[in-house]
Design brief:
It is globular, with a radius of gyration of 32 Å. The chain is of the alpha+beta class. Helix 9 (247-258) runs antiparallel to helix 10 and helix 16 crosses helix 17.
Length: 548
């Protein structure tokens, strides 16, 4: 290290510290601020003269004071330490920081000053929090949606259904998960195969009208939307389905054919939006339901050109659909935005059907539509459901790799080290075989909580699958990674008390460091896995670094 500073003057070192892109503080042994660099002034908003009257503890958030005091005491005893804190800038904005303390002392004497190196990780913490909130909102919408939703794997077996599906079809999730979808009548299975083949080509099928089987044996018409679900590599891994009971709409359409009078009676008492559009594109009838849904009185719609209240971006497709209906004299499904009195535009799902007026022989289009704001939002966000592990609530492989990719980019740019811990539970199969899978599942959930308590706030803990877990330690040296690995192993020593069973487990951990053990995500994953394998060969209940 002497050679490193050979020939470098004090002025040069001062310039490096002053213009360092990360904040640096020089503190006295009482926490008083003696000096700061330009980055500290920029981040916290205090001028150089204001810092003189500020104690470092004054800017620390209350929840971080305890850890900060302990870390200061440790550093004044001559130890380097690294930790995470929350602090406030001059305007009162909360900052999330990763801090390193370096003791400063004269040769052979007790440290009497501290140099504090600060890394602003506020945006990373906010991004992780937003991802967590998004996943929670998504699951809330999924479970509380009035639309029946299901996820089917590529073999046609049920992966998941929501509560609305259970209520609509009569089957509970535990009755059908892992089995072929029971709602498909035998006569429609070939058509279902063809539809799924279309979805495998990345095509979404909107408003597919089919007959479905309920648990009580009745067959009723449904409108179903099928969409592909992708993994982190863009590969299709499952199908998502959203279905709606259209029995009432079918009854209405049949009644319309029999009698215009009956049609009007039904239309005026149903919740779906009903409009009749003549050959010139003018609305000649609007059901009363349009007023509470769209906010305009009926007079606003009747006699108005339909294209005047369709969103301009959707208009070309809608005009093409209407032209096609008059040519084919059939029916078509469509989605578009309709003008709303207070919300500007609102998404509708509609079915347009060509009919002939028996009195004058002229054709018209009957449009039956409904609001799909919630359904559209769910369909757009269904792919996000893969972000968290269902059992433990931890980030899964997809989310972990997204965070890891960003972390490695920042580490490379800032010339920092990172650590990847690859761990699994020793003899997890034994637990499942002796106590059952329900105990095994509970063990994984409790293990996740224990391990999380052993990690820092900035660390990312994810479940890879089965009993395999990953831990990403940003801005971490190898000795710190080994210490965290030791803490994790110690946290698992206490016996588990699960459903009347008492037993102990151990874990093995492989550690790979960035960039020395791998400059890419794949290299780090492979080398951490190799280190894990060696840890198991060494008798388990231990950690091994790849470079050891």
């Amino acid at each position: 290290m002497d050679k490193l500073f050979d020939g470098i003057t004090v002025d040069v070192i001062n310039t490096v510290l002053t213009f360092n892109p990360d904040p640096i503080f020089l503190l006295g042994d009482k926490g008083e601020i003696l000096d700061v660099n330009m980055a500290a002034t920029d981040l916290f908003g205090y001028t150089a003269s204001e810092w003189v009257d500020i104690d470092f503890h004054e800017i620390i958030a209350p929840r971080s004071i305890g850890d900060t005091v302990k870390s200061f005491a440790k550093t004044l005893n001559g130890d380097f330490c690294s930790y995470s804190v929350s602090a406030y800038d001059k305007e009162g904005n909360l900052l999330h920081l990763h801090v390193k303390n370096l003791p400063i002392c004269e040769a052979g004497q007790q440290p009497n000053k501290l140099m504090i190196f600060v890394k602003d990780v506020t945006e990373l913490v906010k991004a992780k929090d937003e991802l967590r909130k998004t996943a929670e909102k998504l699951m809330f919408f999924y479970e509380s949606s009035a639309e029946a939703m299901d996820i089917i794997d590529l073999d046609g077996n049920v992966v998941q259904v929501n509560r609305a599906f259970e209520e609509m079809y009569g089957w509970k999730a535990e009755e059908i998960v892992g089995r072929p979808m029971p709602t498909i009548p035998a006569k429609q299975r070939e058509q279902v195969k063809r539809d799924r083949a279309r979805v495998l080509n990345n095509e979404s099928i909107l408003g597919l009208e089919v007959e479905c089987l309920k648990k009580d044996g009745t067959i009723i018409p449904f409108s179903i939307t099928l969409s592909p679900l992708h993994d982190e590599h863009g590969e299709i891994i499952a199908f998502s389905g959203i279905s709606r009971d259209i029995s009432e709409r079918k009854k209405f359409e049949e009644a319309l054919i029999r009698s215009e009078e009956k049609y009007r009676l039904i239309a005026e008492n149903m919740t779906d939006l009903v409009t009749i559009i003549d050959k010139d594109g003018v609305i000649v009838y609007a059901s009363p339901s349009l007023t509470p849904v769209l906010g305009f009185p009926l007079e606003y719609f009747e006699g108005k050109s339909a294209i005047d209240i369709v969103h301009p971006e959707d208009l070309p497709a809608i005009q093409e659909q209407f032209f096609s209906l008059y040519q084919s004299k059939g029916s078509a499904e469509m989605e578009f935005r309709y003008r709303h009195k207070t919300k500007e535009w609102i998404w509708l799902e509609a079915k347009g059907t060509y009919f002939v007026d028996e009195k004058n022989g002229e054709g018209f289009i009957l449009v039956v539509s409904r609001v799909i704001e919630e359904k559209k939002m769910m369909r757009d966000k269904l792919t996000q459901m893969a972000f968290h592990d269902e059992l433990t609530g931890l980030p899964n492989r997809r989310l972990f790799q997204e965070i890891m990719g960003q972390t490695l980019k920042e580490a490379k740019r800032n010339k920092e080290n990172c650590a990847l811990l690859y761990m699994d539970l020793d003899k997890f199969k034994w637990v499942n075989d002796h106590y059952g899978h329900s105990v095994g599942d509970e063990l994984l959930k409790r293990l996740s909580k224990r391990v999380r308590r052993s990690l820092r706030e900035s660390d990312v803990f994810a479940r890879l699958g089965g009993d395999e877990f990953l831990v990403l330690l940003p801005d971490t040296e190898e000795n710190e990674a080994m210490a965290i690995g030791e803490r994790v192993l110690e946290s698992l020593q206490e016996a588990w008390q699960i459903r009347g069973n008492s037993f102990t487990t151990t874990s093995s951990i492989g550690i790979a460091m960035f960039p020395q053990d791998g400059a890419t995500m794949d290299e780090l994953m492979t080398n951490a896995d190799n280190a894990l394998y060696r840890a198991k060969e060494n008798g388990r209940n231990t950690y091994i670094t790849y470079s050891s």
